[in-house]
Specification:
It is found in: Secreted. The protein is 31% helix and 21% strand. With 463 residues, it is α/β, with parallel strands linked by helices. Strands 1, 2, 3, 4, 7, 8, 10, 11, 15, 16, 17 and 18 form a twelve-stranded mixed sheet that branches. Helix 3 packs across helix 4.
Amino acid sequence: MIEILVVSFVLLQICSPVATSASHVEYLPGFEGRLPFHLETGYVGVGDSATEQGGGQVFYYFIESENNPKEDPLMLWLTGGPGCSSFSGLIFEIGPIAVKVEIYNGSFPNLVLRPQAWTKECSIIFVDLPVGSGFSYADTPYLQRGDWGLIKHTHQFLKKWLIDHPRFLKNQVYIGGDSYSGIPIPAIVQEISNGNEKGVQPWINLQGYVLGNPDTTMEEENYLPSFAHGMALISDELYMSLQKNCRGNYINIDPENQLCLREFQNLQELMSGLDIHITSESKCGLASAGPHGFWNTRSLINKFRRHLSSDLAIPSMNCRSYGYFLAYDWIRDNRVQEALHIRKGTIRNWEVCKSDDYDFDIINSVPYHTNLSQKGYRSLIYSGDHDPLVPFMSTQAWIRDLNYSIVEDWRPWLANGQVAGYTRRYSNQMTFATVKGAGHTAPLYKPDECFEMFIRWISNKPL
């Protein structure tokens, strides 16, 4: 039956111009020898440029599981932003390759293998969505980007990709991402689930989702004073004054509330010498805004953010952002783009994030978590406990509000024999975990620990 459906859908796709394309990549500039894993790149057409605004060609990187791709789960990964390329997840966080950090003297950046790649036991499609991100491009001059367009296009992308790769139709499917992806991904999972229930083909073997340091309520900044106080970044007196004068609202402060404005400005000044992605590191020059861009919805980030720029300034080598500089220099090279089979003339200048003209259609994804919990989908929610952008307390708060009973209470979880964080499991098949010492986002700072966490969870083993 599955084979008949696949043939029918393939025939329908033939009628659509440039519906899908895929190319096997065996060699990459900067990597010595043949790649020891299966890498495929390609495009999938979404929308209908004849009848819809916002259609386009979605670029992806697909890495087949290095273990047992026939049986291992398949995960679609979206980087946050919004509007950031999935190249970030591939090269900085969970993919099988990384840029070698070494002194830049004008030579071509080199690549190395990442031993903590999540592709050791899971096939992953890194997708440049929404349309206009990374190497994805619009079919029409007018492009309207937003959460609902991203949701519809992700579902459409996955259906078409599975039709073009029928050997994965029976594999368990997960949707994963971090940062701003915490807003659209629960809605994407619900969209896929609803499609399955309505008989939309191909049926997708959806099992759950993975979210790291996820934006969820768009009110995460309200937990910043509690986070800063708990991390000993502000004094007891300032914290108590903030609580008294701001009454828990730090996002839309009343201009007439001068006491609150003054105290929150004090908090900002006390944190201004720290990296906005991780409080345990000092602020450092950035090659760009980093792998997840900037968060233009928060007053604190508006104060500190750097505008995305196509002009790269080389940071100091002791900066974490030095690796960003090397990676962006690598991906912008014509030889690399030829190796990745990028369509010439579609992208003038690759950018890590493109967040302009994005419609924030969803301001709270908790209702989608509630619906998915009722349907029994598994979920892994993890937080770097040194992340000031999405403090772990804000994530704990909305999980607590779901009001599901605890089936395994708060305990440490270990990696390499050491405490790597703390975890708790709930009756709705949700696992929450902190990653000790990690920032925004966790695998960037603690790759060994996050690898252990993910591999255990995806294998249905306790953390």
